[in-house]
Amino acid sequence: MKALFAEIDSLLPTEIYGRVTAVKGLLVEIAGPIHEMSVGSRLLIDSGEANPKVPAEVVGFREGRALCMPFSGLEGVRMGCKAVISSRESVMHPGNAWLGRVVNALGEPIDGKGPLSNGGVPRKLRSSPPPASERKRVGPPLDLGVRALNSFVTCCEGQRMGIFAGSGVGKSVLMSMLARNTRCDIAVIGLIGERGREVQEFIEDDLGEDGLARSVVVVATSDESVLMRRQAAYLTMTVAEHFRDEGNNVLCMMDSITRFAMAQREIGLSIGEPPTSKGYTPTVFTELPRLLERAGPGVEGTGSITGLFTVLVEGDNHNEPVADAVRGILDGHVVMERAIAERGRYPAINVLKSVSRTMPRCVPPEQLPVLRKAKQLLSTYTDMEELIRLGAYRKGSDPTVDEAIHRFELIDDFLNQGKDEATSLSEGYLQLANLLEMTLD
Ligand SMILES: Nc1ncnc2c1ncn2[C@@H]1O[C@H](COP(=O)(O)OP(=O)(O)OP(=O)(O)O)[C@@H](O)[C@H]1O
Ligand SMILES: [Mg+2]
């Protein structure tokens, strides 16, 4: 009933509409009562009985006209078409019934499991993060089930981490391991601008029935409109906020945040924003923190949103603008490297280059010496790697290097983890301590 009342409240009492006066590429210009519209308002462009109505969103204004972008194709749209305002704000009504469901960026079910009932409270798609002064601090370490991350890049409840890698290095596979194995109450997963083929594989094989039962999956594949791709990211976060406010510890994952940035770039360029580095427009760099800051611990009395976002680093350049911006916003980054994947070690995480900014405070003191030792050995080996491979290092010249060579394979085996394996936090530390012949006390 609550949901129904909310729906009735959101209906506009009279039909207010403008008319299409121009279409330029993806942009539709609307003339008429533009004082009734604001950025984010929803319109339905009516191009006659033969065509379905085209949902669109106001993205800007110019010379007395509203600039809109469609959520689907513009087939059939002509000059003078009616554009009816359907809602003044972009809001969505996620509810508990969404659990176990797969939705598109408009919140419509796409899993063939029948209609979806909405929650009672309307939530803004572009809400603000909770006030910084009222937010709780990050919680205890979160078990991600992946040894390399649990031991070397420990993530806490309410922390936000980026997974950075070039294309085909294993981001999506790592994401699927995390979706299945992380110890959280609810997982909200946004598949943004990725391949259509991967969606079913992810839901059926990677997540499985049990995984899906505690998840909500939001999908916008690469062939969908830019607005759908951008909105899928906002909706993912909005659904996560709903479950956080119900007191859950939510895992919010997006694959990938780069596609969100690319969608925002396309929208920005269409409405005439100046391109800056690599064609990214200034709003990309204002929207990224506005989106990512919404993840994190909630205020007192609510749960938290742990954020894991993949970032595609173009051309394996970890300093490209989106990667740089995201790294600066988040509380940690996981670096995956092609060279490691090429030698067949998966997940191809370079633990020496990965950082968790909450790490020193959240790791139990007895585990710190083990971690320090493992890192020392790995970095000694990495420094000497070329000499060792060339045969220029003579065994016995330096005891630390000898030990590093001896242990390297063991640590590398420890970091290697099959797709279907899961190791808990404490078990991982125990294994690491054992292979270094240290004790945890
Ligand atoms: N844990 C793993 N075990 C075995 N193979 C793996 C593992 N992780 C990744 N791979 C291999 O790497 C390939 C690419 O992985 P994935 O699709 O996750 O890359 P990606 O970084 O998401 O790529 P893109 O940026 O193109 O989406 C997989 O098809 C698989 O063959
Ligand atoms: Mg991928």
From TrEMBL:
It is an enzyme of class 7 (translocase). The keyword Transport applies. Residues 157-341 form the AAA+ ATPase domain. GO terms for molecular function: ATP binding; ATP hydrolysis activity; protein-exporting ATPase activity; proton-transporting ATP synthase activity, rotational mechanism. It comes from the Bacteria. It holds the Pfam family ATP-synt_ab_N. It catalyses: ATP + H2O + cellular proteinSide 1 = ADP + phosphate + cellular proteinSide 2. Keywords: ATP synthesis, ATP-binding, Bacterial flagellum biogenesis, Bacterial flagellum protein export, Cytoplasm, Hydrogen ion transport, Ion transport, Nucleotide-binding, Protein transport, Translocase, Transport. The keyword Transferase does not apply. Residues 113-140 are annotated as: Disordered. One of its GO terms (cellular component) is type III protein secretion system complex. InterPro entries: AAA+_ATPase, ATPase_a/bsu_AS, ATPase_alpha/beta_chains, ATPase_F1/V1/A1_a/bsu_N, ATPase_F1/V1/A1_a/bsu_nucl-bd, ATPase_T3SS_FliI/YscN, FliI_clade3, P-loop_NTPase. It is found in: Cytoplasm. GO terms for biological process: bacterial-type flagellum organization; protein secretion by the type III secretion system. Gene3D superfamilies: 3.40.50.12240. PROSITE patterns: ATPASE_ALPHA_BETA. Its EC number is 7.1.2.2. PANTHER family: ATP SYNTHASE, SPI-1 TYPE 3 SECRETION SYSTEM ATPASE. Belongs to the ATPase alpha/beta chains family. Probable catalytic subunit of a protein translocase for flagellum-specific export, or a proton translocase involved in local circuits at the flagellum. This is Flagellum-specific ATP synthase. It comes from Roseibium marinum. The lineage of its organism: Bacteria, Pseudomonadati, Pseudomonadota, Alphaproteobacteria, Hyphomicrobiales.
